[in-house]
Design a protein that fits this description.
- By secondary structure, this protein is of the alpha/beta class.
- The chain has a single domain (7-155), classed as Rossmann fold, CATH 3.40.50.
- The chain is 40% helix and 19% strand.
- It contains five helices and five strands, in the order βαββαβααβα.
- Strands 2-1-3-4-5 form a five-stranded parallel β-sheet, sandwiched between helices.
- Bound molecules: iron/sulfur cluster.
- The site of iron/sulfur cluster has 13 residues, from helix 1 and helix 3.
Amino acid sequence: MPNHKKLKIGWFSFTCCEDSTILFTELMNDHWQEWVKVLDVRHAKVLQSDNVLDELDVAFVEGAISAPDQEKKLKEIRQKSKKLIAIGACAVTGMPSAQRNEFPEEIREEINFLIERFHYGDKVKRLDEVVKVDDKVPGCPMNEKKFLEVLEQALKEFGIVN
Ligand code: SF4
């Protein structure tokens, strides 16, 4: 009997330039025929308009966390995901999205009206400052080889492929 079980995944972006999202979609050029058989994409705004945040096996999260509402959303994703994987340097290290953390006081004062207007937090955070992160795909944008390894590992871990 063929195995119809699929890996339930979500792809999420926070404060960033979304280049890893572009890489993810480009990887589909080569991998969509195999992925369509093994992945149940529950949430990925770049791919579809119908998205649900329910029980996920793996959440791939790109970008740094720059506002309290983003923290709340990330915690919700964590709560609904068995594994959470940080995608790209901004998610893994905070940088380059977290550059404003290093601004001198006079520059911080100049940008303060923007922080207040858009309800940003005092500091831009990497994902593991907010939630537990199970694995990381570093790189700016993400290292494609490492991403494919992490995905393959998850497919095996959840019994989707041997
Ligand atoms: S890690 Fe680099 S490519 Fe990825 S979102 Fe941040 S700045 Fe963009």
